[in-house]
Amino acid sequence: MKTNVEAFEAANVVMATGLFQSPKTPSFAAELPTTIVQLHSGEYRQPGALPPGAVLVVGSAQSGCQIAEELYQSGRKVYLSVGSAGRVPRRYRGRDCFWWLNEIGGLDRTVDKLPSPRARFAGNPHASGKNGGHTLNLHQFARDGVTLLGRIQGASGGKMFLAPDLRDNLARVDKFEADFVKGVDAYVEKMGLEAPQESLPELRHGDDAEMITELDVNAAGIRSVIWAMGYTFDFSLVKLPVTDGDGFPITQRGVTQYPGLYFLGMPWLHKQKSGLLLGVGQDAAHLADTLAMR
Q: In the chain, what are the domain boundaries?
């Protein structure tokens, strides 16, 4: 390995750089007026750091929803472009959602259990750890005054063009939670667990939102745009053909076909939890055993 200081040689190299190398922003971002402050969600810190005025948040996975909530609770007018990331209740039947996901085996899923390998890159379900953790619900956002929008498809002349897919996206979000609840209820019954019955609020305020397909950012008073669209990953540092058509490392639980080259700490490297503190230790132990055998 060559650095800007010196070169290093090693019998074994473990790539543990994660999947978040480059912030995603669309090419049409350049078409917005230069008076609009644009930043990626990774650069956002607090509402007061943004100029006065409304804020457009693009992307409704965890970061986008958490930022949108903080902004509107601070008194800002917020527009939120909604994608397909699902929702889970932060707590259900007396337990945290991650406790249930781990207990019923949801975090142990492997890629072959997904609809397609590309499903690995879906946004994480809406949830927040703020103030001890709570559920994020787009319908609640709408009830509190957030303007929900469909996916943004482009921009030109100070206008944003939106797909008429808001209600379809909200339906997918609601179904994700319904499927989670059904899975937990079935597991509780199967295992005979003592877990209090619970009915979740059935909010539908987002379904009544106006279907906006064109948004004039100046007329809407939008002075900031936050691109909460995730990141791209880049493993060009490795000068070997070790990635698939999506650029994801090709491994068997982190072990590549090239002796001495390994990957660690990425979601779906072996299981869904491979990129979480909850699961990375198991993969690390596997690599340690592999290294010891070499």
A: 13-18+235-293, 23-232
Between CA 199 and CA 292 the distance in angstroms is: 51
Is it the case that residue 1 has pLDDT exceeding 80?
Answer: no
Q: Where are the beta strands (DSSP E) in 68-172?
A: 78-81, 91-92, 95-96, 147-149, 152-156, 159-162
In whole angstroms, give the CA distance from residue 178 to residue 203.
13
Tokens of 181: 């609840």
DSSP state of 154: E
The fold of 23-232 is: FAD/NAD(P)-binding domain (3.50.50)
Q: Residue for token digits 């002075």?
A: 223
**In whole angstroms, what is the distance from residue 149 CA to residue 167 CA?**
9
Q: Mention every residue, 6+ apart, whose C-beta is less than 8 A from residue 30.
A: none
Structure tokens at 221: 């008073």
pTM attached to this predicted model: 0.92
Q: Which alpha helices (DSSP H) does the chain contain, by range? A: 62-73, 97-103, 138-143, 166-191, 277-293
C-alpha span between 223 and 217 (Å, rounded): 8
Give the CA radius of gyration of the chain: 21
Residue among 59, 66, 19 at smallest CA distance from 40: 59
Contact call for residues 76 and 55 (beta carbons, < 8 A):
yes
Q: How many residues does the chain have?
A: 294
CA distance 161 to 26: 13
Query: What Cα–Cα distance (Å) separates residue 257 from each residue in 18, 40, 266, 294?
Result: 20, 36, 18, 14
Over residues 6-38, the pLDDT tens digits come to 998 999 999 999 888 899 999 999 999 999 999
Q: How far apart are CA 188 and CA 144, in angstroms?
A: 34
